[in-house]
Specification:
CATH topology of the largest domain: Aspartate Aminotransferase, domain 2
CATH superfamily of the largest domain: Type I PLP-dependent aspartate aminotransferase-like (Major domain)
Number of strands: 12
Distance between the termini: 47 Å
Structural class: alpha/beta
Strand order of the largest sheet: 1-7-6-5-4-2-3
Order of helices and strands: HHHHHEHEHEHEHEHEEEEHEHHEEHHH
Length: 497
């Protein structure tokens, strides 16, 4: 079999923007000043002693540089992005246009509430919508990401117990938990206690009962969990946690499987965080900042962050910091990433209650369809737990590694040559050679079939020559990287000499 080993992007000499251009070259030259010059507007202490050392390039050079960079990255606009537990769904362009309207895009964070009534009303309405979706009545939009929402939840749980004169130092997290959960607990100054998983992929109730003691502040739980399993014992789990006076926290990363169908508040959860950049189509990471609002029950409400968005009796909106002496205070300088709120609110209003339910049902249908297609290679990639799944599922590559001589990482890298972004690999940790796949509701049957066919082709190829997958990818701008070395010894500074 012939394998492509080079692309035009690989042949291109890689240079930073600082290495391009020439002294004195400009993309734009300002016209001569046609008004009287006024000195002293900017105090000397704020003025540079010398001009900044910026790239000196023409406009075509700028455009070509960044277009070339964009072509080195895979994105949702290029193809299927099945990263498990990330919910990489399509971001509707209509919502981007709404967010770009001048009243939204040009709103300054320091704008007086009296002159930002439309924004405050949108945020207030978004809070009401998220409260309904979660089944919990009180919402704060402040957290900037899911991990930030997690931190808010743990701090709220700690404040709740401290207000009752209790010192609780432990937080229970299942071994299927997201990797941010233990980090969040540690950052909040508490101790992580791992809870085991039963053979069906849910929480081990006996282990939970043994570890749910009166020094436990809360249990952090995702339902469905990272295995794509909805825990049927959720009410019993809630009773065990509440029985020792602890708080039940819902990690909303997997909300895309249940929104519009069931609500965390109805399951017994006290605190929920949302990922607007997952379930509600706000672009991820490089496409824009995240947002992780938090919803809480009545008993947690006194500790919720300030200021709060309130609706006055005359119908106007305001930011209120008064009367909440038990609040944990601010978690950030402003109320959150406003553009995220506009997109999420547009998404919710576009779909409505029936549409949100349909999105969840389609996500679950797509996941089970893809699981069925990959069942054709189950002898090499068996399902780790259960027979069906919710919005995502975990396969084990252990038989593939043993019988075909390729690892999950090799399969993931070879998928790049077939034009598919790999799924999440080696997570969750309790599955050997894990492959975590989430297709979302926005992918077509043809896209899912193409992905399943690519996996099947790679396994057939590995039977003949496993070295092909072991050395993949071949068609990407860069080959296989030393990811550990890049993380431990990053090169992040550009020499200007």
């Amino acid at each position: 079999m012939s394998v492509s080993t080079e692309t035009p992007l690989q042949r291109e000499e890689i240079r930073t923007i600082f290495e391009k251009g020439a002294p004195g070259r400009r993309a734009f030259v300002c016209p001569e000043l046609d008004v009287p010059k006024v000195d002293g507007l900017l105090p000397d202490r704020f003025r540079r002693a010398q001009p900044p050392r910026l790239p000196e390039v023409s406009e075509p050079e700028i455009v070509r540089h960044y277009v070339r960079l964009s072509k080195r990255n895979f994105d949702l606009d290029s193809g299927f992005y099945p990263l498990g537990s990330c919910t990489m769904k399509h971001n509707p362009r209509l919502h981007e246009r709404v967010t770009a309207l001048p009243g939204h895009a040009r709103l300054h964070p320091f704008q007086s509430p009296k002159r930002a009534q439309g924004a405050l009303e949108l945020m207030w309405n978004l809070e009401r919508a998220l409260a309904e979706i979660s089944g919990l009545p009180h919402v704060s939009l402040q957290p900037s990401a899911g991990s930030h929402g997690e931190l808010a939840g743990v701090l709220l749980a700690r404040a709740y117990h401290e207000d009752r004169g209790q010192t609780r130092t432990k937080v229970l997290t299942p071994d299927t938990a997201h990797g941010t959960n233990p980090a969040t607990v540690t950052m909040a100054g508490l101790e992580v206690v791992k809870v085991g998983t039963n053979p069906d992929g849910g929480v081990d109730l006996d282990d939970l009962r043994a570890k749910a003691t009166e020094d436990v502040a809360c249990l952090m739980l995702t339902n469905p969990n990272t295995l794509g399993v909805f825990d049927p014992n959720i009410r019993e789990i809630a009773d065990i946690v509440h029985g020792v006076g602890a708080v039940l926290y819902y990690d909303g990363a997997n909300l895309n499987a249940i929104m519009g169908i069931t609500r965390p508040g109805d399951m017994g959860f006290d605190i929920v965080h949302f990922n607007l950049h997952k379930s509600f189509t706000q672009p991820h990471g490089g496409g824009g900042p995240g947002s992780g609002p938090i919803a809480v029950s009545d008993r947690i409400n006194p500790y919720l962050m300030n200021p709060r968005i309130v609706k006055r009796e005359d119908g106007t909106f305001d930011l209120d910091e008064h009367g909440y002496e038990k609040s944990i205070g601010r978690l950030r300088g402003f109320q959150g990433n406003y553009g995220c709120f506009v997109r999420a609110y547009a998404y919710i209003r576009s779909l409505g209650a029936a549409g949100l339910r349909d999105a969840s049902e389609t996500a679950v249908l797509n996941a089970n369809y893809l699981l069925a297609r990959l069942g054709e290679v189950a002898e090499h990639l068996p399902l780790a737990f259960g027979r069906l799944c919710m919005h995502e599922f975990v396969l084990s590559g252990a038989p593939m590694k043993r019988e075909l001589g390729i690892r999950t990482l090799d399969l993931a890298k070879r998928l790049l040559d077939h034009g598919h972004h790999p799924p999440t690999v080696y997570f969750p940790l309790l599955v050997d050679e894990a492959l975590l796949i989430e297709p979302t509701e926005t992918e077509t049957k043809e896209a899912l079939d193409a992905f399943a066919d690519a996996v099947k082709a790679i396994l057939e190829e590995a039977r003949e020559d496993p070295e092909i997958a072991r050395n993949a990818p071949y068609s990407t701008p860069v080959r296989r990287l030393d990811e550990a070395g890049a993380a431990k010894r990053p090169v992040i500074r550009q020499s200007l000499d």
